Amino acid sequence: MRFLKWIFLALLGLVLLAVASANRDPVLLRLLPAEVDSFFGFGLAIEVPLFLAIFAGIVAGLGIGFVWEWLREAKHRSAASQHRREAGRLAREVDRLKSQKDEPEDEVLALLDSKGTR
């Protein structure tokens, strides 16, 4: 299994290198469209190789997806935490009740138990 993982990672690396070498031309990335830049009086633009823009888009998409899923699953994590606390509380109560079962609650019952008349 570990061997297959290394083969997969090697093939993925080769594919990423092929994409990077085929897309080395520089592209201009702008924060806002040119018309909006002139309206606000500022604009952020950067020139990067195309493969960096592609890889940055992939990484941004993965990051957004991970955050989205983490937020979506928050209610499930909260419910699981609440169930763990409730299970712990119930386990402590069972232990307490088991220890009380061994000790008589009433002194009269304790006397009767000691005489064996019960």
From TrEMBL:
Q: Which UniProt keywords apply?
A: Membrane, Transmembrane, Transmembrane helix
**TM stretches of this protein:** 48-68
Q: What is this protein called?
A: LapA family protein
**What's the source species for this entry?**
Albidovulum sediminis
Taxonomic lineage per UniProt?
Answer: Bacteria, Pseudomonadati, Pseudomonadota, Alphaproteobacteria, Rhodobacterales
